[in-house]
Automatic annotation (TrEMBL):
PANTHER family: KTR SYSTEM POTASSIUM UPTAKE PROTEIN C, POTASSIUM CHANNEL PROTEIN 2-RELATED-RELATED. Gene3D superfamilies: NAD(P)-binding Rossmann-like Domain, Regulator of K+ conductance, C-terminal domain. Residues 137-218 form the RCK C-terminal domain. GO terms for biological process: potassium ion transport. This is RCK N-terminal domain-containing protein. GO terms for molecular function: monoatomic cation transmembrane transporter activity. InterPro entries: NAD(P)-bd_dom_sf (IPR036291), RCK_C (IPR006037), RCK_C_sf (IPR036721), RCK_N (IPR003148), Trk_Ktr_HKT_K-transport (IPR050721). Residues 1-117 form the RCK N-terminal domain.
Length: 218
């Protein structure tokens, strides 16, 4: 079990906080909005109303004792940068921060944030991909040109083993898992056969996977 502190309990922050608790971790959520704190007090380990832009408050919360901090302050870029700087100075192990734009992200990276996220942009990209290629159910961006994607098995895949499909040599992609109904076959073997309605979790070049997944839309 790990301990996380989420600073800012808007839509993104509250979603991160509640999901971490559902996954079995302890979460302290902090926001200066009383209504947001009240909404989450029974859903996460602890929710506190406080002004997180004050260094004294962060020290009293014991931020340096947490495994990671998620800075999810909304549109106040100055507050986001200030809080992140104070967390770094206090020696926090790992910091994830929400960015509003590319300039904001650059500043956060300069400060030393370990991971910068763009929730709105990333969600927009997911929706766009699903509209264009419905067979891509989900994806995780590793780099701009490489992704882990969940794709529906193409008709030509069905009743063939992974060795027969030879996706690595034909397309340069690797199958990490096979999803069948509600179960996962992690690290599938070459002899494993793809069935109708299976989903493949694959890793490879984004444009190649997208093109491959788009075949069954035609």
């Amino acid at each position: 079990m790990k301990q996380f502190i989420v600073l800012g309990l808007g839509r993104f922050g509250s979603a991160v906080a509640t999901t971490l608790v559902e996954l079995g971790h302890e979460v302290l959520g902090v926001d200066n909005d009383e209504e947001r704190v009240d909404d989450l007090k029974d859903k996460i380990t602890q929710a506190v109303q406080a002004d997180i832009t004050e260094e004294r408050v962060l020290k009293e919360l014991g931020v340096k004792n947490f495994d990671a901090a998620i800075v999810s302050i909304g549109t106040d870029l100055e507050a986001s940068i200030l809080v992140t700087m104070m967390l770094k100075e206090m020696g926090l192990k790992y910091i994830i921060a929400k960015a509003q734009n590319n300039l904001h992200a650059k500043v956060l990276k300069k400060i030393g944030v370990d991971k910068v996220v763009f929730p709105e942009r990333d969600m927009g990209a997911r929706i766009a991909r699903r509209l264009i290629t419905p067979n891509i159910k989900d994806y995780v961006e590793l780099e701009p040109d490489y992704n882990i994607m969940e794709i529906e098995a193409l008709p030509e895949f069905i009743d063939n083993s992974l060795s027969e499909l030879d996706l690595r040599n034909k397309y340069g992609i690797n199958v990490l898992a096979i999803k069948r109904d509600n179960s996962f076959n992690i690290s599938p073997q070459a002899k494993d056969v793809i069935k109708k309605d299976d989903f493949l979790i694959v890793i490879g070049e984004t444009k190649i996977i997208t093109k491959l997944a788009g075949k069954s839309d035609k």
